[in-house]
Amino acid sequence: MTNARQSIKPRPNPDQPVIIPKIRTSVSLLILGLLLASMVSLVIMIFLPESNLTTATQLLLLIAELFLPIPIFYWAWRNRINLGEMLRINRVSSMSIVAAVIIAVSLTVIIDELDRLIQVILPLPESFSQIGKIMLITDWRSALLVIGVVVLAAPLVEELMFRGFFQRILEYRQGDITKSVLLSAMVFALIHFNPWWIIQIYLMGLFMGYLAWRTNSIWPSFILHAINNGWSVWWGHRPELAGFYEWHGHVHPAIIVASLACFYFGMRFFITVTPIAEKRQDVVLIENLPDYFDTIHHGE
């Protein structure tokens, strides 16, 4: 962990610049990842034992998540690009992590109430109740799979792909942080193929994008993503606690007010303890690599 007051100072390496691919390349890699995960899922489904369909489906979801970033990893390997730099796997301060947890818990409650309001106008179809059944924890095996998929693997893989890989490319290519965060959040929401949750996912994506940009790290956005997903799993198994949390089918007004106050405090705290990460200066657009190496060669 770094000191909360210190900027993250990247160490330039003239022999190995930070290579930024084209936007269409990044979009193609995201699509390839989805296609690969889908094909692997279809192949595995053929051999799934029908005796324990729930556990098999949970295992299938985990395997599919792990295949999503493979095209990105392969592209980075072919181009000899450092994965840690390309995917924003960077350290952050402990105070930034604390602030991210406060933001995550409070924002999750706020988004939960927004979801309830949206469902009044656009209710979820009955078929979506099957998703809840798949995510039920019935024994230690299903606990490992559900927590492994929903709380750990899915948030980590999706943050690597969208905030680490895709948004970072948009930031360098567009030169406009706001547009980059807005666009990456939109793609993130659309890629879930769920029109009933698109607004909720989009808003969550905006804040995850902001956290990742300010820290130049996926870890704060991963915390937000994991807590949000874990919240859904928790409440799916502890309905007896709804008495103090719910009020006429909505989040209790007192909890909403407290969450709004905590969210405001969390954002102010995060901004105070988290300086904007400095951009690398040795960044080269992939189409300019020949000129870059030519300049290095003549400089020697």
What's the SSE blueprint?
Blueprint: E1 18-20, H1 23-46, H2 53-67, H3 70-78, H4 83-86, H5 94-121, H6 129-134, H7 140-174, H8 177-190, H9 198-215, H10 219-237, H11 242-245, E2 246-247, E3 250-251, H12 253-273, E4 283-285, H13 289-299
Helix pairs in contact: 1-2, 1-3, 1-7, 2-7, 5-9, 5-10, 5-12, 7-8, 7-9, 7-10, 8-9, 9-10
Give a verbal description of the structure.
Helices cover 69% and strands 3% of the residues. The protein has one domain. Helix 1 packs antiparallel against helix 7 and helix 7 packs antiparallel against helix 10. With 300 residues, the protein is mostly helical.
| SS-derived structural category | mainly alpha
**Could you say which overall geometry the principal axes of the C-alpha atoms support?**
globular
**Cα radius of gyration in angstroms:** 21 Å
Q: What helical percentage do the residues reach?
A: 55-70%
The poorly predicted ranges are 1-14
What is the H-and-E element order? EHHHHHHHHHHHEEHEH
Through-space gap between termini:
37 Å
- Strand proportion, as a percent range, falls in under 5%
- Would you report the number of β strands? 4
How many domains in all?
A: 1
Helix count equals: 13
Mean pLDDT: 87
- How does the major sheet shape up? 2 strands, parallel
Strand order of the largest sheet: 1-4
